[in-house]
UniProtKB/TrEMBL annotation, chain A:
Entry-linked PROSITE patterns: CULLIN_1, CULLIN_2
Molecular function as annotated in GO: ubiquitin protein ligase binding
SMART domains, per database record: CULLIN (SM00182), Cullin_Nedd8 (SM00884)
Protein name: Cullin 4
Domain Cullin family profile intervals: 385-635
Pfam families with a match to the protein in the record: Cullin, Cullin_AB, Cullin_Nedd8
From TrEMBL, chain B:
Organism: Dimargaris cristalligena
A Gene Ontology BP annotation from the UniProt entry: cell division
Predominant cellular place of this UniProt entry's protein: nucleus
Domain RING-type as annotated: residue spans: 35-78
Protein name as it appears in the record: Anaphase-promoting complex subunit 11
Metabolic or biological pathway: Protein modification; protein ubiquitination
Keyword Plastid: no
A GO term for molecular function: zinc ion binding
């Protein structure tokens, strides 16, 4: 038997629980009316808590999609309303573009501000929607983004409004730059950030802003720099302009920090750099730099450098700086009328530039290099003469030396001179003149400070190496040896002379410390020179020396040759110096004289008048030029020891002039130095010294050519020339080198290759 | 009028006692110059005379004597080198 199946039915589950029929509609309406109330700045009817719950309920009951669409429609509607109002309020067709931008901007600012505040509140209400439905659908925008997106669309659609606002912003910012503030900076800040929030900043604002900035500053710079070239106050104007630029940079940086997106700082500064500095850079440098340098306006120059450093434009400034120094220096060097002040002027220029380098140009390596190059060019702009004048300047410094300045000052001057010397190409010219001057200082005891001499020598040694100063050191050594010789010689002398000697140790140059004591016997001394160290002096034989001098020299020679058996001794009488005590009617005077002067003066002890020929005969001075100069120095000039007859002119004429002793000579001082005219630098002497340098150079060139050819055997003309220019220490022209090469070919040191005329072969 | 000489400073130049044209038999350099090893003539590079009257740069000669091939002979006349007093 089959039982019938039992069927159980549960009635209660047949209908799922449901919301009240109108619930979704009414709730949505409640929410939307709240949104509208917020838009109208009214309080919503329900509390925010209830609204939030309502939204939550709708979402939980799968009505989110409809709610989102509804909200979107509502917001679209609201934004449209906002823009209608904006359009109506801001766009005033009749107003000019430059009208006060304040109200318009203010209006937009308020609208934007209330819109964002409202959206924030709305988002809070619809937070549950945001967090669930929107999150689960990646293609949907969150409430906040949705609102912004709607705003952006409207913004983009309203071209006229957009342009009007941009225009007003530009006017406001320009006014801000001009130092006025027609618009609250908060408003500016908020509006610019509106562009950022709407994601339209780069194209909608920044681009126009930069263009506008460029126009603004290009205009400003051209206004500042108009008619600059040739104007007398160019330096001041450029200086002020630079100050202005500095201030502008500062201001714009602050503006960028306050108002702009931080990525805008860089492009903004770039625009600024270009408009204010890079574009007018040539005008600035050409008109501003020379007067600023000439006026040594350190602060302005430092500003110039710092600004250009900031814009990576140091090279144009450096080039112009080098040119300025070179032109200025060249003018000093080539001013042939002002040779006597050339070295001083150059030192001043160098000092000024050194100061500018350290204080304004931050000791920039490139600038140091430029300065060095400029000095190298300018000082060698004239061949030989600067080298000679530097040597001469040193001579006068070391002569007067410590008499007028302290050791430190002297040392400083020497350093300055050295800094010029460093740039000389023809150092051999300098050496020749320096040697000649040094020999005079040593032999005539003119050197003011032995320490200074030594210090200068040490400096030269550091600068050019031991080889350069070897000869100069040799000269000092000769003087020391001579002093030792004199100490040794005294006791060796026999008889009467030895008895009369005072036991004092003589000074290096034979000048005693106290030679004026009345009854002292003559004080003799000799300096023995090593020929190769010293400049060559013309021999002067046949001088008739006073007997006691001649006797002394004879004895010394005997002594010396005994001591150094394999040597010869030649007297250089023309270099002798002496002190004579001469009784004038008004009183005795001590005169420092050269040998020639002394010989002439000694003749007149008999009180006779003499003719030129007589004097020449009795003194044995054969050299007419020398004798004329000597007579001129005694009869003309400051101290007239001899009277010339006729006395109408200074120039000595050998044929007619007669001379006599000037008994009535007076002078305020007891010891007098009769300046010898030949001591002055004569053109002839300069020529001979220069000539000697040229000869030396030829030898060096010959030696260098032979050395190179010997090393390489075969060398093309170009190779040889290049090697020579590298190995030779002084400036020389290719033509001169070629001449020497031809001479060496003639002398069979080398030959031209029979096939290739450009190839030289060494001949052993 | 009687002038009195208070001071007199003379100047003289020394040279080696050789003929101007003569050269060192070893380095063929002038006696006024120096041996090839020295930079500058003068006291630092003296000359030396033998009893045979031959003269050389001292450095040149010493270098020669110190070589074995020299057998202590004067390079000019091959007689034993004796430095003149």
């Amino acid at each position: 038997m089959v039982a019938a199946p039992i069927c159980l039915t549960f009635d209660g589950f047949r209908q799922p629980p449901a919301l009240p029929a109108q619930y979704e509609q009414t709730t949505r309406n409640r929410l939307m009316s709240a949104v509208q109330a917020i838009h109208l700045k009214n309080h919503p009817d329900d509390s925010l808590e209830e609204l939030y719950r309502a939204c939550e309920n709708l979402c939980l009951h799968y009505h989110a999609e409809a709610l989102y669409d509804c909200l979107k429609a509502e917001l679209t509607n609201q934004v449209a309303q906002v823009f209608q109002a904006l359009q109506r309020d801001i766009i005033v067709p009749s107003a000019p573009t430059t009208a006060d931008p304040g109200p318009g901007l203010m209006r937009l600012h308020t609208a934007w501000h209330s819109f964002t505040t409202q959206v924030r509140l709305i988002r809070s209400i619809f937070l549950f929607l945001d967090r669930t439905y929107v999150l689960q659908h990646p293609s949907l925008l969150s409430v906040w983004d949705l609102a912004l997106d709607l705003f952006r669309q409207q913004w983009l659609d309203h071209t006229a409004l957009r342009n009007a606002i941009l225009q007003k912003l530009m006017v406001a910012l320009a006014a801000y730059r001009d130092g006025q503030s027609p618009v609250d900076s908060l408003v500016l800040h908020s509006l610019i950030h509106m562009y950022i929030d709407l994601a339209v900043y780069p194209t909608g604002f920044e681009f126009t802003f930069l263009e506008h900035t460029r126009t603004y500053y290009t205009h400003e710079s051209s206004q500042h720099l108009a008619n600059l070239s040739g104007s007398t106050d160019a330096a001041d104007r450029v200086a002020n302009y630079l100050k202005h630029v500095e201030r502008r940079f500062h201001e714009e940086e602050r503006l960028a920090l306050h108002f702009l997106h931080r990525d805008s700082t860089k492009p903004l500064m770039k625009v600024l750099y270009e408009a204010l500095l890079i574009d007018p850079i040539q005008t600035l440098i050409a008109n501003g730099l020379p007067p600023l340098l000439a006026g040594q306006r350190l602060d302005d120059l430092r500003r110039f450098y710092t600004l250009l450093q900031r814009v990576w434009q140091l090279n144009p400034l450096r080039t112009a700086y080098g040119q300025y120094v070179e032109t200025t220096g060249r003018a000093i060097v080539c001013a042939t009328d002002h040779d006597d002040t050339m070295v001083e002027n150059l030192i001043q220029l160098k000092q000024a530039q050194d100061r500018i380098l350290t204080q304004c140009f931050a000791n920039d390596d490139h600038y140091v290099e430029t300065l060095r190059n400029s000095f190298e060019h300018l000082i060698n702009a004239r061949p030989n003469r600067p080298a000679q004048l530097i040597a001469k300047f040193l001579d006068s410094t070391l002569r007067s030396g410590n008499k007028t300045m302290s050791d430190d000052q002297l040392e400083q001057i020497l350093n300055h001179v050295l800094s010029l010397f460093r740039y000389l190409q023809g150092k051999d010219v300098f050496e020749a003149f320096y040697k000649r001057d040094l020999s005079r200082r040593l032999l005539y005891n003119k050197s003011a400070s032995f320490d200074a001499e030594k210090s200068m020598l040490a400096k030269l040694k550091v600068e050019c190496g031991a080889e350069f100063t070897h000869k100069l050191e040799g000269m000092f050594k000769d003087m020391e040896i001579s002093r030792d010789l004199m100490a040794d010689f005294r006791p060796a002398r026999g008889g009467e002379l030895q008895g009369k000697q005072r036991g004092k140790r003589p000074l290096a140059h034979g000048y005693d410390e106290n030679p004026s004591s009345a009854d002292a016997s003559p004080h003799f001394s000799v300096s023995v020179l090593t020929q190769s160290y010293w400049p060559t002096y013309p021999p002067c034989d046949g001088l008739i020396l006073p007997p006691e001098v001649a006797d002394y020299k004879k004895q010394f020679q005997k002594y010396y040759l005994k001591k150094h058996s394999s040597r010869n001794l030649t007297w250089q009488n023309s270099l002798d110096t002496c002190v004579l005590r001469v009784p004038f009617t008004a009183g005795k005077k001590e005169l420092s004289l050269t040998c020639y002067q002394a010989l002439v003066l000694l003749l007149f002890q008999d009180g006779q008048e003499r003719s030129y020929a007589q004097i020449q005969h009795e003194t044995g001075i054969q050299d007419n030029d020398e004798l004329i100069r000597t007579l001129q120095s005694l009869s003309g000039g400051r101290y007239r020891i001899l009277t010339k007859n006729p006395a109408d002119r200074e120039v000595v004429i050998p044929a007619s002039d007669r001379f006599s002793f000037n008994d009535g000579f007076t002078a305020p001082l007891y010891r007098l130095k009769i300046n010898a005219i030949q001591f002055k630098e004569t053109t002839q002497e300069t020529e001979t010294t220069t000539e000697k340098v040229v000869q030396d150079r030829q030898h060096q060139v010959d030696a260098a050519i032979v050395r190179l050819m010997k090393a390489h055997k075969n060398r093309t003309h170009t190779q040889l020339m290049n090697d020579l220019f590298q190995s030779l220490q002084f400036p020389i022209s290719a033509a001169d080198l070629k001449k020497r090469i031809d001479i060496l070919i003639d002398r069979d040191y080398m030959e031209r290759d029979s096939e290739d005329a450009n190839l030289y072969r060494y001949l052993a | 009028m009687k002038v009195k000489i208070n001071q007199w400073a003379g100047v003289a130049v020394w040279k080696w006692c050789v003929e101007d044209e003569e050269v060192c038999g070893i380095c063929r350099g002038a006696f006024d110059g120096c041996c090839p090893d020295c930079k500058l003539p003068g006291d630092d590079c003296p000359l030396i005379w033998g009893e045979c009257k031959h003269c050389f740069h001292m450095h040149c000669l010493l270098k020669w004597i110190s070589t074995e091939a020299s057998q202590q002979l004067c390079p000019m006349d091959r007689r034993p080198w004796v430095t003149a007093a």
